[in-house]
């Protein structure tokens, strides 16, 4: 793993810095945050290497040296040993690895690190950070030349619940959302709620938001001082209702129930209660004024997205599960998605709002392919 430390960036260092013609002038070019030269940046989320096909894909991906940085937007595995193995593989292949924990990483039951198990989800998060440090994986802000990369640790609350008829949420108290059984949170972060186990982690999102605050403040100060053509933020969870799989008009703030025009509206409605938090959007928007462009990457829903909303590009590029690929719900032929090139410029891609419709021309997304 290559390691770089922060160095003064001199305005006449033309060979090292290639300025974007869109970049605004800065009076200072010193970066307080650890920095590296620019390199292509690729994206992947929801690796779920518990599935042997997915682990084989990761091993194949890491079988050669790659002159890229990779953003891993959560959900490698609930199994601590597999998370460690995967981060080790990625760091041995990619020049930079950026990671943020998803919900599966914070399962306590079945976490399996040797003979021990993390006593709580908070403790497991701390162990994950230690593993990142061991393998040189970034779970903190890092600068790739004039592109600032910033993770946003997140969870879900009820702020992304869609406005839909009550019958679509019927049976939520029995819905087998595994986090409710396998995560272990301090009692002050949970509230009584009609869900599996009767405890909903209402306070986890705000707790993580507070944890992010010092890092975001540091990022803002850095962006004020250093030339920043782009900021790349990434979270595991969805930053707003507009990122839900069924949301068809990203610029709209109002959900149209007609968008539930498929056989599983109940699943979609229930998922909105565990999809993410509006606090993520509030946090990432704190950085937008200080860069010329803003790209936010996320994971969790396993339904690819690529769209613009109010000046920010949002991208979700999951590996997903083998069954989902077979059903055309996630990319059939897994590849990482390039979002920045060697010059630090975004790599454009077609707008993607419903991957399954573009692949199946609007047919039933739940019918398995024969």
Q: What key phrases describe this protein's structure?
A:
alpha/beta, 370 residues, Purple Acid Phosphatase, chain A, domain 2, 7-stranded mixed β-sheet, 15% strand
CATH homologous superfamily designation = Metallo-dependent phosphatases
Spatial order of strands in the largest sheet: 1-5-6-9-10-12-11
Low-pLDDT parts are 1-28
The arrangement of helices and strands along the chain is EEHEHEHEEHEEHEHHEEEHEH
Overall SS class: alpha/beta
> Compute the gyration radius: what is it?
20 Å
| Assembly state | single chain
Tally of individual domains: 1
Second rung of CATH, namely the architecture: 4-Layer Sandwich
- Here the CATH topology equals Purple Acid Phosphatase, chain A, domain 2
Explain how this protein is built:
This protein has 370 residues and is an alpha/beta fold. It has helices spanning 52-61, 80-93, 121-134, 179-182, 204-225, 265-271, 278-285, 322-326, 355-360; strands spanning 35-36, 41-44, 66-72, 94-99, 142-144, 147-151, 191-192, 199-200, 230-234, 293-298, 305-309, 312-316, 337-340. Strand 7 and strand 8 form a beta hairpin. Helix 1 runs parallel beside helix 2 (80-93). The chain is globular and about 55 Å long. Pfam families: Metallophos (PF00149). Residues 39-303 form the Calcineurin-like phosphoesterase domain. It comes from Rhodosorus marinus.
């Amino acid at each position: 793993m290559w390691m770089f430390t922060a160095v003064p960036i001199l305005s006449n260092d033309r060979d090292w810095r290639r300025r974007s013609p869109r970049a605004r002038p800065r009076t200072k070019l010193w970066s307080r945050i650890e920095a590296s030269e620019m390199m292509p940046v690729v994206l992947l989320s929801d690796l779920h290497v518990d599935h042997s096909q997915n682990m084989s894909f990761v091993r194949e991906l890491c079988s050669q040296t790659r002159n890229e940085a990779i953003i891993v937007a959560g959900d490698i595995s609930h199994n601590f040993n597999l998370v460690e193995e995967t981060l080790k593989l990625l760091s041995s292949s990619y020049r930079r690895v950026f990671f943020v924990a998803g919900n599966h990483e914070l399962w306590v039951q079945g976490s399996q690190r040797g003979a021990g198990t993390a006593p709580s989800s908070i403790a497991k998060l701390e162990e994950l950070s230690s593993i990142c440090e061991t393998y040189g994986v970034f779970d903190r802000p890092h600068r790739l030349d004039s592109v600032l990369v910033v993770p946003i640790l997140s969870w879900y609350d009820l702020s992304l619940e869609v406005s839909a008829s009550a019958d679509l949420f019927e049976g939520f108290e029995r819905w087998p959302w595994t986090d409710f059984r396998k995560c272990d949170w301090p009692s002050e972060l949970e509230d009584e709620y009609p869900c599996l186990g009767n405890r909903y982690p209402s306070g986890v999102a705000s707790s993580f938001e507070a944890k992010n605050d010092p890092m975001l403040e540091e990022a803002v100060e850095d962006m004020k001082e250093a030339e920043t053509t782009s900021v790349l933020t990434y979270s595991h969870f969805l930053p707003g209702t507009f990122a839900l799989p069924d949301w068809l008009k990203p610029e709209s703030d109002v959900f149209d129930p007609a968008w539930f025009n498929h056989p599983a509206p109940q699943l979609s409605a229930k998922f909105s209660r565990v999809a993410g938090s509006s606090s993520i959007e509030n946090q990432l928007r704190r950085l937008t004024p200080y860069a010329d462009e803003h790209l936010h990457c996320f994971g969790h829903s396993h339904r690819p997205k690529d769209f613009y909303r109010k000046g920010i590009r949002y991208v979700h590029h999951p590996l997903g599960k083998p069954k989902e690929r077979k059903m055309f719900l996630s990319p059939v032929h897994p590849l990482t998605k390039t979002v920045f090139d060697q010059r630090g410029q975004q790599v454009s891609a077609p707008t993607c709002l419903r991957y399954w419709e573009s692949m199946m021309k609007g047919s039933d997304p739940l019918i398995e392919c024969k």
